């Protein structure tokens, strides 16, 4: 039987490549970063499978790959899939849920701690030689806000939200509210979490964590009116996608003191533009989209994405098809 042709859009670990080579005829973008669009479109004319990370899979791309049957992304988020285009051309989309939950949750707690205890800001102060005698013990200038026993609100209580809840409630004794479109009774039982509407969550929480996927319904999900509901002492944490927030409204809320600070792993434009006002704010912690970025977790994600692709191409029933395209398996 002929082996399916696969294109890999970015360098992957040698062990993952070796696994793919056992099952497929692979070609790979060998340079740093991700294959640029033009080169990608040229490379996929013959392929049945695509292993990717963030490359836009839209009608134009699918038109360049008439034999394509499956696209597997090395990420849990798949907002770069045009689901209608994939459905109409019967191309299966696969992603990597679960393997990154703990790693991303660790980072969210780090953002909460870093913003509220001013870790990045005060690290910069110490390194700049500005730590003056007596200031840390006698003055309020280095005071932060407690995370332990504070009120946490999670918007998007899914797989990663659950891992955040576990840390926050069992580790830090936080009081938890959450908002989803559907209730999660098991989370309510496990964490004593209270389901509430978005407005109540925003009004009551000391930390608001946004963890929804980016979908047509969640573009600018958190806007001006939402920041206006939040406490002036609250911290806003976003590790979902930059476009789930109206970034201009968030900047205004931070500048005007409507909220106290923010911890951000994601931005409207990535890499974030050097003139973005967020980069000048000492009360905002900024990270370069590193939620899942540990060596082990990125390896596990790449291996899972490779296995997903092989399953989809060899005719067995793949486990991690994105939910909107599962009907293609019937
Ligand atoms: N910063 C980083 O590096 C990373 C970012 N991410 C981002 O995190 C996202 C979440 O991942 P994961 O937890 O695995 O996903 P899940 O699908 O498990 O959870 C998402 C949750 O969001 C809720 N949700 C979806 N749409 C809405 C809506 N319109 N309003 C309110 N709630 C909504 C869902 O509940 P319901 O359907 O009931 O509303 C669900 O509970 C990813 O899609 C990705 O964008 C993920 C990994 C790393
Ligand atoms: O942002 C990362 C992801 O896995 O989604």
UniProtKB/TrEMBL annotation:
Keywords: Oxidoreductase. Residues 109-291 form the D-isomer specific 2-hydroxyacid dehydrogenase NAD-binding domain. It comes from the Bacteria. One of its GO terms (molecular function) is glyoxylate reductase (NADPH) activity. Pfam families: 2-Hacid_dh (PF00389), 2-Hacid_dh_C (PF02826). PROSITE patterns: D_2_HYDROXYACID_DH_1. The lineage of its organism: Bacteria, Bacillati, Bacillota, Bacilli, Bacillales. The keyword Oxidoreductase applies. This is Glyoxylate/hydroxypyruvate reductase B. Residues 6-323 form the D-isomer specific 2-hydroxyacid dehydrogenase catalytic domain. Belongs to the D-isomer specific 2-hydroxyacid dehydrogenase family. GhrB subfamily. One of its GO terms (cellular component) is cytosol. It catalyses: (R)-glycerate + NADP(+) = 3-hydroxypyruvate + NADPH + H(+); glycolate + NADP(+) = glyoxylate + NADPH + H(+); (R)-glycerate + NAD(+) = 3-hydroxypyruvate + NADH + H(+). InterPro entries: D-isomer_2-hydroxyacid_DH, D-isomer_2_OHA_DH_cat_dom, D-isomer_DH_CS1, D-isomer_DH_NAD-bd, NAD(P)-bd_dom_sf. The keyword Ribosomal protein does not apply. Its EC number is 1.1.1.79, 1.1.1.81.
């Amino acid at each position: 039987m002929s082996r399916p042709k696969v294109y890999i859009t970015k360098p992957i670990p040698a062990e993952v490549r070796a696994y793919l080579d056992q099952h497929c005829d692979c070609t790979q973008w060998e340079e740093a970063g991700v294959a640029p669009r033009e080169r990608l479109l040229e490379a996929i004319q013959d392929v049945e499978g695509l292993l990717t990370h963030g490359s836009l899979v839209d009608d134009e791309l699918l038109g360049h790959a008439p034999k394509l049957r499956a696209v597997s992304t090395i990420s849990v988020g798949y907002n770069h899939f045009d689901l209608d285009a994939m459905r109409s051309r019967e191309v299966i989309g696969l992603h990597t849920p679960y393997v990154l939950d703990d790693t991303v949750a660790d980072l969210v707690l780090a953002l909460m701690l870093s913003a509220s205890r001013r870790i990045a800001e005060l690290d910069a102060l110490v390194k700049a030689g500005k730590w003056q005698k007596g200031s840390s013990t006698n003055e309020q200038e280095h005071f932060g806000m407690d995370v332990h026993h504070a009120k946490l609100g999670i918007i998007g209580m899914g797989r990663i939200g659950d891992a955040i809840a576990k840390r926050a409630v069992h580790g830090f004794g936080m009081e938890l509210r959450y908002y989803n479109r559907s209730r999660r009774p098991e989370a309510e039982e496990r964490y004593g979490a209270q389901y509430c509407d978005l407005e109540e969550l925003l009004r009551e929480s000391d930390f608001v964590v946004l963890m929804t996927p980016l979908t047509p319904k969640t573009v600018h999900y958190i806007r001006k009116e939402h920041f206006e509901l939040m406490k002036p002492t609250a911290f806003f944490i976003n590790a979902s996608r930059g476009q789930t927030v109206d970034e201009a409204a968030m900047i205004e809320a931070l500048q005007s003191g409507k909220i106290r600070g923010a911890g951000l792993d994601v931005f409207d434009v990535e890499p974030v533009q050097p003139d973005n006002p967020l980069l000048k704010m000492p009360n905002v912690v900024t990270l370069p989209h590193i939620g899942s970025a540990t060596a082990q977790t990125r390896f596990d994600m790449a291996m899972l994405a490779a296995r997903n692709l092989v399953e989809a191409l060899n005719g067995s029933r793949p486990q991690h098809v994105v939910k909107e395209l599962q009907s293609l398996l019937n």
